[in-house]
Design a protein that fits this description.
With about 300 residues, the protein is an alpha+beta fold. It contains nine helices and 16 strands. Helix 3 packs across helix 4 and helix 7 crosses helix 8. The radius of gyration is 19 Å and the shape is globular. The two termini are about 15 Å apart.
């Protein structure tokens, strides 16, 4: 499909600030990809300003494609604004691999721009399921990729506080969280893929993730059977492992291997309610929320993307 009036949403602070420094070369790649001599460009400076701009894009109905230059967090911000509009008014997103982790694009085996040129030009729009999260205060936040609680969110707290060494900060976060190595009591109710309501209670949980794609934190393979538009979320749980066994599992996932430990399991669900004790943070597509009780349900095929 040929898009007549794309707009580029550009986050200069993404990828450790490299996107801001290298934007001229990035801009040339995008123009070549879309076969345009010039493109409408909007640089994100503050969250409120980006919200207002994307709302205006949807209301004006002038642009027919949003191109995101940033990471998964940039895409998540755009998606949360699009979800406030009726489905027929939402603009497709072209996702390009200019973030640090690019976990969503890794789901498709596509996380380098050189691989992306032909891929994007030949592939049509794909519909994405969306994870709708509801916090204890009733606040709704939409995720495309992953909701993580426990070790995952503990590690991400350290990741977001490191402003440099983009590729290494995930390793730093994992190492810091591993040093603390907490276990949690889990109380959960979920609707399985057959529509049955089930409960799951464990007293030795290390982390729980709810995924729409295979990867989290860049190249960490947490949900190998996840499909982005099958109508189900993939729930992954690590529990009762020793520190040594857990480290082995984490490195397997980081090396793009399936975690084979008996204390790691996954299942599909259409909705889930999760509560961990002691309280900890929740990671929502890179956004940290200071609570450990959340409801998640899956909304099928809500967003159109080119990936």
């Amino acid at each position: 499909m040929i898009y007549k009036n794309p707009i580029v949403i550009f986050n200069p602070y993404s990828n450790g600030g490299k996107n801001g420094k290298n934007f001229e070369s990035i801009y040339k790649v995008i123009k070549k990809l879309l076969k345009k001599d010039d493109l409408e460009l909007y640089k994100i400076t503050t969250k409120d300003e980006s919200i207002n701009r994307i709302i205006k894009i949807c209301e004006d109905k002038k642009n027919d494609l949003i191109v995101t230059v940033g990471g998964d967090g940039t895409v998540s911000s755009v998606v949360n604004i699009l979800m406030t509009f009726p489905k027929e008014n939402r603009i497709p997103i072209l996702l390009l691999p200019f973030g640090t982790g690019n976990a969503i694009l890794r789901h498709f085996g596509h996380h380098h721009i050189k691989k992306g040129r032909d891929f994007h030009s030949e592939n049509p729009v794909t519909k994405f399921d969306v994870l709708r999260t509801v916090r204890e205060d009733g606040t709704i936040y939409y995720c495309l990729n992953v909701v993580g609680i426990g070790f995952i969110s503990d590690a991400m707290k350290y990741v977001v506080n490191v402003e440099s060494f983009e590729k290494l900060k995930y390793i730093f976060g994992i190492a810091k969280a591993m040093k603390e190595f907490k276990k949690y009591i889990l109380k959960s109710t979920y609707r399985d893929e057959n529509g049955e309501i089930k409960t799951l209670n464990l007293d030795d949980v290390i982390f729980i993730t709810v995924s729409n794609t295979k990867y989290a934190g860049g190249n960490i393979l947490l949900a190998p059977s996840a499909i982005h538009n099958d109508g189900f979320m993939n729930v992954s749980i690590a529990h009762s492992s020793s520190r040594r066994s857990f480290i082995k599992g984490v490195f397997s996932a980081a090396l793009n291997k399936v975690i084979a430990q008996k204390d790691f399991f996954t299942f599909k669900a259409s909705s889930i309610e999760i509560e961990l004790d002691p309280k900890t943070d929740i990671i929502l597509d890179g956004e940290i929320s200071p609570e450990s009780h959340i409801k998640v349900d899956l909304l099928p095929e809500e967003i159109e993307m080119i990936v």
